[in-house]
Amino acid sequence: MIRNVFVLALVVFAGFFAGLYLAYHTMEPCRALAVEQARRSVMPTAVAHLWTRAEAGRSDRLGCTRRLIGSWQDRLSS
């Protein structure tokens, strides 16, 4: 039973990071957040990517992960 829960958690984490890599070509949540924000920005993507990357670089990984998941939730709800 415990082994099954551990394997399930491992599969979920592996799926999360595989999805990050496939969608954003990076495994780092802050860089993925910068790409996500640049894609959703009204500015041109290249300009917005530089701005959001500098902004996300000052955040910790957990904060970036939370903001990235929040962005995904906003995208799914709209």
Averaged pLDDT = 85
Sheet-strand content, in percent, reads: under 5%
Morphology = elongated
| Number of DSSP E strands | 0
Oligomer: single chain
- Main sheet attributes: strand count, strand direction, barrel closure: none
Distance between the termini: 38 Å
Radius of gyration: 14 Å
Low-pLDDT segments, ≥5 res: none
Order of helices and strands: HHHH
Sequence-ordered SSE layout with sheet pairings:
Layout: H1 2-24, H2 29-40, H3 45-56, H4 61-77
Task: Explain the overall architecture.
The protein has 4 helices and no strands. It has 78 residues and is mainly α. The relative contact order is 0.12. It is 82% helix and 0% strand. The mean pLDDT is 85. It is elongated and about 50 Å long. The chain has helices at 2-24, 29-40, 45-56, 61-77.
List keywords for this structure.
elongated; 82% helix; mainly alpha; 0% strand
